[in-house]
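question for whoever is on the cluster today: can someone run the full assembly for these? two chains, 463 residues total. i dont have access anymore since they changed the login thing
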Amino acid sequence: MNQKDADLYNMQTLLNTVKGLPARKMVVVSPYDRATLESISAAHNEDIIMPILIGEEKRIRRSAEQYNIPVNNMEIICSDEENIIERASSLLLEGKAHFIMKGMVRTGYFFHVLLDPRFKIRTERILSHVGMFEITGKKRIFLMSDAAINILPNFTRKIHIVANAVDAAHKLGIGHVKVAMLAALERVKLPAMPATLDAFLMKKFAETGYFERCEIDGPFAFDNALDPEKARTKGIGGDVAGNANIIIVPNIETGNVLYKSITCIQRQDAAGVVLGGTCPIVLTSRSDDFKTKLNSIKFARLLIL
Amino acid sequence: MKHTISCLVYNKPGVLAKVARSFADEGINIYSLAAGEVEEEDKSRMTIVVDTGSEMVRRAEMHLKKIEEVIKLYDLKEEELIAMELLLIKIRVKPENIPQILQTAELFNAHVIAVSDVSMVLSLASEENRVNGLIKMFKHLGIIEMSRSGKLAVSGLD
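^ ran it for u. tokens below:
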């Protein structure tokens, strides 16, 4: 894909570039629900992944049979409930799997085990969730972070969140990334709106060159970050205004509401992965549908070699 | 040795000068002085910190008690008082220092109250040693200007 134009493809076109890549091993923790099994099966059929399912084997097979999803051609590792995540993490550590997907298991417990120092998943970065969305009717995707992991990140954590998202954008083929730091308005307002301060200072911090091949600006209200016309109407200048590839939300509530409003109300496609570790982690909401889960697998696959 | 003297006075012109004179007459340097209205509008409380011997302070207190506007006088013992100081500090903002500035502010629970491309103003209301600590941390980052309220104190809880 043309490096400069990756952001101009619609989401499915971008995600489907995964089909030209060799399949990678994805270990799935507790794949008992329909949407997870269907998404794994579809990704397997499209030669995107080689799935390794870990869980109570009988339960996996029972669910697969119930939903008429063939799993006979997939590797299944039977494990007691309490050892599932540990077994999956060991596969990553041993290089027997390239990335991991969370199934029917509590997110907190999943990360508690996965991030145990024994498994060396952590890097110098913190983990953060990166969501991918498409602007309706336009050939444009954008990434949003962090809607799932960091509750109220301070400035240092936001540096990691930005860095993880920028890395993802580069790997997707976006050459020069435009990052918009979101708040509720375009100027610093203290002490009422601390998010405006972080946004302003992140732009300033970017002058150090810490983030490669990207431009950061802010604070922006949501519409002015993504809609060039709205930005023009409000007289907001700069390259990022209206053309952001990445939006960084100030807290998990903003991100979560935005994510759910796009997927639940607008019924738009979405994908989500957790980055900052040694491999992408496919983390979707238990309520996410098959398509979102499949998109997320593709998104994660695009981010690894 | 530091003494914290709380002086409840009538809010009238010239009182501050008279109080200051009581210390000056004994050759005592005032380390900090904070004054403001109390719950009754016609009265003010001055919190004065001096660094000198107890005998010198006792003599200054004798002078103070003779001032007609002075209503009450307390030599607050460190272990019995609840005290705080307000610091406003303007520091230079260089992009590479931003994380350190914000981490330090977070550590001390200081708040950024104004920012520009080149400088930032933070406030901290805390105990004296924490205020000193924050200043020390910011010193090498480039303090442009700062202002301290001096110690504000009330006597401890009953």
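summary bc i know u wont read the tokens: The domain at 128-261 of chain A is CATH 3.40.718.10 (Isopropylmalate Dehydrogenase). The interface with chain B takes residues 154-156, 159, 188, 190-191, 197, 200-201, 204-208 of chain A (CB under 8 Å).
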